[in-house]
Amino acid sequence: MEVAIISYGTGNIASLRAAVTSLGASAYLATTISDLKKADTIIFPGVGHFNNASKNLEDSGMKKFLIGLIKEGIPTLGICLGFQLLTISSEESTNYPGLGLLPFKTVKIKVENNLLNKVPHIGWNTIDSINKKSKLLKNIELDRQIFYYSNAFGILKRDSFKHPHATYFHEKEMIALIEYKNIYGVQFHPEKSRSQGLTLLKNFLF
Q1: Which of 16, 82, 93, 196 has its CB 3.0 to 4.6 Å from that of 78, i.e. a possible disulfide?
Q2: What average pLDDT does range 24-29 have in this prediction?
Q3: Could you tell me the maximum CA-CA distance found in the chain, to the nearest angstrom?
Q4: Which pLDDT does position 47 carry in this prediction?
Q5: Residue 11 pLDDT > 80, yes or no?
Q6: What distance in Å separates the CA atoms of residue 192 and residue 199, rounded to the nearest whole number?
Q7: Phi and psi, residue 169, nearest 5°
Q8: 3 neighbors 39 (Cβ within 8 angstroms)
Q9: Whole-number pLDDT of residue 125
Q10: pLDDT at residue 140, as a whole number
């Protein structure tokens, strides 16, 4: 399996690539449209600034091609910033939109009690609720559903969204994980989330 990790000038590429490779897949950095044409699966990595990442995707010519490829059905996973890039837009960017493949808008995390709930939200957090059976969480026991986060922006839960999704709580209920057709998104970093993170990546890939 050829796994294209999308390059947009940022992202925790090394640890993500190592995690994917440890599971038996072949991971490579995709910087051009030509790189994307050989991909069986796509991962958008986390870490970085939404505006810069979206701009870099447009400047490289990959953004439009990626939208078409994903709409055609290639399995796609967005991690943290990568998840946010799949949404319509982000409050982190006024100039560049997202890919618009997930029917959400990314917002800045705002809290009233900043002693209990820090921003950025950094550290371990549990899954708060799951609305349906999740492919990504298969074989991860409830007491192991704890993942590592590092984000100042996120996606608020919306009751009208009926596709499989899980939430985490950081003063408000926010989306931790989503499964929408061939598109998967996680706000946390599975590559930094120990064995349960590797299990989640395996569930996505195979």
Answers
A1: 82
A2: 97
A3: 48
A4: 87
A5: no
A6: 12
A7: -115, 125
A8: yes
A9: 98
A10: 98
User: Catalytic: 163?
Assistant: no
CB 196 within 8 A of CB 147: yes
Report the C-alpha gap between 71 and 197 in whole angstroms: 26
Q: Is 191 a catalytic residue?
A: yes
Using H for helix, E for strand and C for coil, what is the string for 114-137? CCCCCCCEEEEEECCEECCCCCCC
DSSP 197: H
189 is catalytic: yes
pTM, rounded to two decimals: 0.96
Helix (H, G, I), strand (E, B) or coil at 94: coil
Query: Could you tell me which residues come within 8 angstroms of residue 24 by beta carbon, excluding any fewer than 6 positions away?
Result: none
Rounded Cα distance, 108 and 110, in Å: 6
How many alpha carbons lie under 13 Å from residue 17 in its C-beta half-sphere? Answer: 13
Fold type of domain 2-205: Rossmann fold (3.40.50)
Tell me which DSSP letter residue 177 carries: E
**Backbone angles phi and psi of 178, in degrees to 5:** -145, 145
Residue 195 is encoded by which pair of tokens? 């064995």
76 pLDDT band, cuts 50/70/90, is very high
Catalytic residue (one of 2, 49, 80, 170): 80
Separation between Cα atoms, residue 184 and residue 199, nearest integer Å: 15
SS3 70: helix
pLDDT at residue 62 is higher than 90: yes
> Residue 173 pLDDT more than 90?
yes
Using pLDDT thresholds of 50, 70 and 90, give the confidence band for residue 167: very high
